[in-house]
Design goal:
single chain; elongated; five-stranded antiparallel sheet; mainly beta; 105 residues
Length: 105
């Protein structure tokens, strides 16, 4: 189970998009990969066709490809990337904390 969740803001720390930030759209736990909005964009060639209304769909589409979980890092509230830790709150529930600041995420 990863500490990064859908909807988290992350920063890319390795690869062609190093330094860019984006929001996690989905997580593939089995492959340890995430899809981040606006990161690792690739061209996808799809067969052009028509819908029932006569609108053409397909052609060359740009979309986000998956990036490995080890190449992204969670962005804390202050806008800087931080590692993620865990601790129990006063009710005994596990919560995520920023290792750099010690604050709850």
């Amino acid at each position: 189970m990863s500490a990064i969740k859908k909807g988290d803001k992350v920063q890319v720390i390795a690869g062609k998009d190093k330094g860019k930030t984006g929001t996690v759209l989905s997580i593939h736990h089995k492959d340890a990969r995430v899809i981040v909005e606006g990161i690792n964009r690739v061209l996808r060639h799809t067969k052009e066709s028509q819908t029932e209304r006569g609108v053409k769909v397909g052609g060359i589409i740009t979309k986000e490809a998956a990036i490995h979980l080890s190449n992204v890092q969670l962005v804390a509230d202050d806008g800087k990337a931080s590692r993620i830790g865990a601790k129990k709150d006063e009710r005994g529930k596990n919560v995520r904390i920023s290792v750099r600041t010690g604050k709850e995420i």
